From TrEMBL:
Keyword Cell wall biogenesis/degradation on entry: yes
SUPFAM superfamilies: EPT/RTPC-like
GO cellular component, one term: cytoplasm
Organism encoding this protein: Lederbergia citrisecunda
Residues annotated as binding UDP-N-acetyl-alpha-D-glucosamine: R93, R122, P123, I124, D125, L126, D305, V327
Active site positions, chain numbering: C117 (proton donor)
Name of the featured protein: UDP-N-acetylglucosamine 1-carboxyvinyltransferase
Length: 434
């Protein structure tokens, strides 16, 4: 079993560069299946386990996928297979994002139903309602959801909730449909805008991405295109919190202020200094952090993917803070792990009440999901003694070289393979850059 071991107490300083966004690259790779002619070149790709998983899904669907450092080249010009089996969907729910492209390209898609996960039940009913509105027949059988349509027709689709995945899947289905599609109450996340830009560069007609209404005119055919992925706002936000919790001074290179306005506002309310520089955001942590309330919301509200990292910071803040999670019903599994580190956190329904400041203490804790993994490591940066974080497979879905980046900022941190089952060897340090 691998662990990250952090010894708290170091102030972070220096510069850290963020990768391309995981949540932008996954839908873009799914959309590359729409190009029946020409190859897509996708740049600034973070080489995370999720990205390799979606690469495997595409290969299984008969697309050519080549990884060249941080670039992926996709050739989807051959006829595609239409089935994404459970072995992929189990590893990564975002595999369901191939449905829209397959339905548009091949008239059929069969994808294993994703299960729930540690953050909530995560149904896909809104994706399917969108496909049905466009004339697809949808059935759920034997653990698979199958959608088929001779020809998708444009439709007016109102989403009951601005789901990121449903908006993306419907966009991908609509770009090759006959006529106009309007998606109302759609998601406005920067990753939606990135997908729209990529689709437009393939020859699609998508307007309004980033607002609450997207309009799409279907076209006959799409072509491979060259696209650079936007910087990862959640990775950026994670390093901003890491700088703040240690009272450090860090330039987060590549952070886009407009993508992070709610996170910046909350950090400033907590007395953290955030300065816009030409190539990123400088974050300077205060001596005393102030308690604040946070409510997670769809963009431009406070992102649920930053909730656990902020929890680490609020534990160290003076006063009572309340976090209310409105996006996922069960995204507090990490609260229990924070309690093991001596924090005063009470869960009450969809809210948590944090009484701070607590002096965090090092402990052995488990990452319950990818953001929880990062949050526990961040808490370890401030804790007395050693914090050992396990279940790193979650962290690896979303963060590249996390411990190496933190170490380059001065953290006392290492990643080890625990060999406690092997007589006479306790642990082995892992230093390889992925
Ligand atoms: C790969 C990726 O980009 N993942 C992000 C994406 O996930 P994802 O696209 O899965 O998140 P959604 O926006 O779809 O989900 C938000 C809420 O809507 C509900 N819902 C969603 C679809 C549906 O058909 N029915 C339904 O009820 C979900 O259960 C959840 O409560 O957006 C989330 C919300 O910002 C982020 O936390 C994830 O990091
Ligand atoms: C929840 C997340 O991702 P996913 O939707 O891929 O599980 C995340 O990035 O925090």
């Amino acid at each position: 079993m691998e662990k990250i071991i952090v010894r708290g107490g170091k102030r972070l300083s220096g510069t850290v560069k963020v990768e391309g966004a995981k949540n932008a690259v996954l839908p873009v790779i799914a959309a590359s299946l729409l190009a029946s002619e020409g190859k897509s070149i996708i740049r600034d790709v973070p080489t995370l386990s999720d990205v390799y998983t979606i690469g495997e899904v595409l290969r299984h669907l008969n697309a050519g996928v080549e990884f060249l450092d941080k670039t992926i080249i996709v050739d989807a010009s051959e006829d595609l297979n239409v089935e994404a089996p459970f072995e992929y969907v189990r590893k990564m729910r975002a595999s369901v994002l191939v449905m829209g492209s397959l339905l548009a390209r091949q008239g059929r898609a069969r994808v294993a139903l994703p299960g729930g996960c540690a953050i909530g039940s995560r149904p896909i009913d809104l994706h399917l309602k969108g496909f049905e509105a466009m004339g697809a027949k949808v059935k759920v059988e034997n653990g698979f959801v199958e959608a088929s349509a001779d020809k998708l027709r444009g439709a007016k689709i109102y989403l009951d909730f601005p789901s990121v995945g449903a908006t993306q899947n419907i966009m991908m289905a609509a770009v090759l449909a006959e006529g106009s599609t309007v998606i109302e109450n759609c998601a406005k996340e920067p990753e939606i805008v990135d997908l729209a830009n990529y689709l437009n560069s393939m020859g699609a007609y998508v307007r309004g991405a980033g607002t609450g209404t997207i309009r799409i005119e279907g076209v006959e055919k799409l072509y491979g295109a060259d696209h650079t992925i936007i910087p990862d706002r959640i990775e950026a936000g994670t390093f901003m919190v890491a700088a703040a919790i240690t009272g450090g001074n860090v330039l987060v290179q590549g952070a886009v202020p407009e993508h992070l306005s709610s996170v910046i506002a909350k950090l400033e309310e907590m007395n953290v200094t955030v300065i816009e520089e030409a190539n990123g955001l400088r974050v300077i942590g205060p001596n005393r952090l102030k308690a604040v309330d946070i409510k997670t919301m769809p963009h431009p509200g406070f992102p649920t993917d930053m909730q656990s990292q902020m929890m680490a910071l609020l534990v160290c803040a003076e006063g009572t803070s309340i976090i209310t999670e409105t996006v996922f019903e069960n995204r507090y599994m990490h609260a229990e792990e924070f309690r093991r580190m001596n924090s005063d956190i009470k869960i009450e329904g969809r809210s948590v009440i944090i009484n701070g400041p607590s002096q965090l203490q090092g402990a052995e804790v488990a990452a319950t999901d990818l953001r929880a993994g990062a949050a526990l490591i961040i808490a370890g940066l401030r804790a007395d003694g050693y914090t050992r974080v396990t279940e790193l497979k979650h962290l690896d879905r979303g963060y590249l070289d996390f411990h190496l980046k933190l170490r380059s900022l001065g953290a006392d941190i290492e990643r080890v393979k625990d060999l406690s089952d092997t007589p006479s060897v306790k642990s082995e340090v892992i230093e390889t850059k992925s």
